Amino acid sequence: AREQTLVAVKPDGVQRRLVGQIIQRFEQRGFKLVGLKMLQVSEELLSEHYCQLRTKPFYPGLLRYMTSGPVVVMVWEGHNVVQMSRTMVGHTNPTEAQSGTIRGDFSIHISRNVVHASDSLEGAQREIQLWFQAKDLLDWDCCD
Ligand code: CMP
């Protein structure tokens, strides 16, 4: 199915100059970029984004991590993009992530795992609405 998903380069990914390489992987795979912005995230937005994690012991550290610098957030579109971007990103815990995945190639610790990708179609729809206004998602075409 033609889908959209939310991918975010977390503050460690921006600080380590990995934004270009991460975008390149999605472009190379054939997905279409339809939204992109860089922002310093508020705790308010994060508490919505991570609403299922608010009670976890690592949540305060997660907030500190995610507000430690700007993030680059993107919407990618394409066939099965939700599941395929999870595969490209790799396991949440970099210890388990395969080489060839973004986390498997660029990270060693779960609390600095470089990138986020929505975990389901419903999650993607929820997160896209949370991070983007509809007018900022562009419907463009060339050859797909
Ligand atoms: P992500 O899957 O993008 O969204 C939830 C985030 O919470 C996850 O990436 C990690 O950054 C973080 N996280 C999940 N589990 C842990 C944990 N046990 N310790 C620290 N951070 C975690």
How would you explain this protein's 3D organization?
The chain has 144 residues and is α+β, with helices and mostly antiparallel strands. Helix content is 39%, strand content 19%. The chain contains seven helices and four strands, in the order E-H-H-E-H-H-E-H-H-E-H. Strands 2-3-1-4 form a four-stranded antiparallel β-sheet, with helices on both faces. The chain is globular, with a radius of gyration of 14 Å. The model has no long low-confidence stretch (mean pLDDT 97). Adenosine-3',5'-cyclic-monophosphate binds at residues 58, 62, 92, 110-111, 113, 116. The site of adenosine-3',5'-cyclic-monophosphate (CMP) has 7 residues, from loops.
Strand content: 15-25%
CATH architecture: 2-Layer Sandwich
- What overall geometry do the principal axes of the alpha carbons give? globular
| Average of pLDDT | 97
- Separation of termini? 14 Å
Domain module tally: 1
Strand/helix succession:
EHHEHHEHHEH
- The CATH homology group name: Nucleoside diphosphate kinase-like domain
So how many helices? Answer: 7
Strand order of the largest sheet: 2-3-1-4
Q: What features would you highlight for this structure?
A:
4 strands, globular, Alpha-Beta Plaits, ATP binding, magnesium, 4-stranded antiparallel β-sheet, 144 residues, binds adenosine-3',5'-cyclic-monophosphate, ATP-binding, nucleotide metabolism, alpha+beta
